[in-house]
Amino acid sequence: FDTLQTKELSEFEPLDFLRDRHVRFFQRTLQVLPERYASLETTRLTIIFFALSGLDVLDALDVIDRNTMIEWIYSLQVLPTDDQSNISRCGFRGSSHIGIPYSTKGPGVLHPYDSGHVAMTYTGLCSLLILGDNLSRVNKQACLAGLRALQLEDGSFYAVPEGSENDIRFIYCAASICYMLDDWSGMDIQKAIEYIRGSLSYDNGFGQGAGRESHGGWTYCAIASLCLMGRLEEALSRRELDRIRRWCIMRQQSGFHGRPNKPVDTCYSFWVGATLELLDVFQYTNFDKNRSFILSTQDRLVGGFAKWPDSHPDPLHAYLGLCGLSLIGEPSLRKVHPALNITQRAFQHLQQLQQAWKDSTAQYSTHTHIIFVSLPS
Ligand SMILES: *[C@@H]1O[C@H](CO)[C@@H](O)[C@H](O)[C@H]1NC(C)=O
Ligand SMILES: *[C@@H]1O[C@H](CO)[C@@H](O)[C@H](O)[C@H]1NC(C)=O
Ligand SMILES: CC(=O)N[C@H]1CO[C@H](CO)[C@@H](O)[C@@H]1O
Ligand SMILES: CC(=O)N[C@H]1CO[C@H](CO)[C@@H](O)[C@@H]1O
Ligand SMILES: [Zn+2]
Asked: Assembly and partners (predicted)?
């Protein structure tokens, strides 16, 4: 018996996937966070997204009150004012921190510091889709006007109208928004592609911008954006794509790291793993090593995943660790859509909505013979 038990512990215990602990981890994330995360308050919507999408990947969305959550997310929509003077500031804000009164209906109120943030608009729309909302209360034209106002002459995007860093991350968020709203009038695609191409570094990964160091996160944003635009093979030659595949494959050590000579980190199992999946070569990586590394960062007491073994779990690494496990086919998890970073279930919901939008537009335009171009999926 002793031998059996020792054998069981050493062989199986470290690889246990503690589903219920993770469900509770994300439930707690939706309610309260430790003080060390106080500075994330302005981006609370992204934290909510990690938790909601994490629960979706775990197939555990039934533990939350969907309608309350949907209403709260709509209360973060920056709506146009009566005179539309702020339309280029629309989108979703990250939380209620600037003190705009709670409201889920328009018109919006004027406030000098109120505006959408491109990553909040992206995670807000994803969250609504995950919750099964049909986006009928999203002011699409205002979101798209807000987006257009964020694009710079070089093709990159700011996060907020006042200006901020501008790089491929925000191009990715903008591309996801256009893709979800099924309307690319929110960006100049050609300019965005030029910026992405310019960020391809000499060693065949992508940097934050031209001349910057290659990095797994930027490479994900670049490749996923081009996939969402349906322009991957047009923007990059076959030879370039092969070299990018090679750069990404070389990022696997046990788990993945984001840059040469850096330690492995849970989140790159998603950033690099999803890029490899989008480039059709994920199957050439070693899944077992990947899985073992991610599971070594699992917090066995409170649930969630951390960046490294023996460090604190946080919502981002918890979510991306789960996505990494889902990509390698962990049996109890839902599949993740690698480019949009939501589950295939939520993605199918989006496809149904878009089909309904097309059908209703077609009804109104039968006399004008509009030709609908199908989206890349
Ligand atoms: C995908 O999800 C992660 C975690 O939610 C988030 O940090 C990121 O903004 C999302 N988009 C990208 C670039 O993957
Ligand atoms: C969208 O959902 C709301 C309820 O959430 C419903 O009242 C409305 O009819 C739906 N709209 C469409 C176009 O399906
Ligand atoms: C009255 C007011 O604050 N309007 C603002 C709405 O947004 C536009 C675009 O940023 C500003 O120029 C206006 O001042
Ligand atoms: C759980 C899991 O993903 N297991 C996979 C590990 O990788 C091997 C191939 O490398 C697969 O056969 C397993 O299914
Ligand atoms: Zn990380």
From this structure: Heterodimer of FNTA and PGGT1B. PGGT1B mediates interaction with substrate peptides.
